[in-house]
């Protein structure tokens, strides 16, 4: 277990658990947390064994957003740096080659929702309070929220949240596609772990390439996305894991993937 000032990182074989741990401020994200997130990613990138990362928040919030107390006195130039550092960190999380699951507990507001949006999968709870309250503070989502949310749930639902500051519950977030699954609060980590294990048992290169293909496609034309997908599938036919997966099916046994 690695314990940093604002979070802990626990690596258990092929799974990793990152718990935001600035409980007193409801895990509000500030420069110290951005530093810690980058240090955690350094550790994750150095461990090729880890296949899936689960991010959650200790206490009653996944994250209550950007640290208003740090932001309130920033000059526009300092704010530019804070936003750029945050964006660089969020992009780094989104582009991690391992699979990321946001286990969204309680509040996920502003930067908290933006962090969840960088993850590949969002599992929430019936007790969630989710939204973009930034307009009530005189700003807008600045860690990619207006862009990533509209790609996930569409322009209309994103405007609904980002223009009004409306806070929605888990059931509504699930209904509009902001959460892929919801469970009761006491089931959250169990469900996220179960789903992480389900992902981790699949062919490692295939998992990474599926993520890459989907992420690339969400930012490109259909034509270019299909081209990349085709190249990836062709490449996967050269892997040992493809032979193992298909042979195991025909031989009616469990595949033993090597990530080769
Ligand atoms: C680039 C990114 C930009 C952004 O994300 S802008 C920020 C967007 N987020 C928000 O506007 C949400 C702000 N927080 C709240 O509205 C409330 O909190 C909640 C509704 C989430 C929870 O309310 P309750 O249960 O009454 O708790 P509490 O007493 O307000 O919070 C406990 C402590 O946490 C601090 N805190 C909460 N959110 C933030 C934050 N975003 N930045 C800095 N501190 C925060 C509070 O001040 C307080 O601290 P103390 O006990 O010292 O009074």
From TrEMBL:
EC number: 4.2.1.55
Organism classification: Bacteria, Bacillati, Bacillota, Bacilli, Lactobacillales
Gene3D superfamilies listed in its UniProt record: 2-enoyl-CoA Hydratase, Chain A, domain 1 (3.90.226.10), Lyase 2-enoyl-coa Hydratase, Chain A, domain 2 (1.10.12.10)
Keyword Lyase among UniProt keywords: yes
Any Pfam family matching the protein: ECH_1
Family as reported in the entry's similarity comment: Belongs to the enoyl-CoA hydratase/isomerase family.
InterPro entries xref list: ClpP/crotonase-like_dom_sf, Enoyl-CoA_hyd/isom_CS, Enoyl-CoA_hydra/iso, Enoyl-CoA_hydra_C
Protein name: 3-hydroxybutyryl-CoA dehydratase
Organism this protein belongs to: Eremococcus coleocola ACS-139-V-Col8
Keyword 4Fe-4S recorded: no
Keywords, sorted A to Z: Lyase
CDD domains tied to this protein: crotonase-like (cd06558)
Gene symbol of the encoding locus: crt
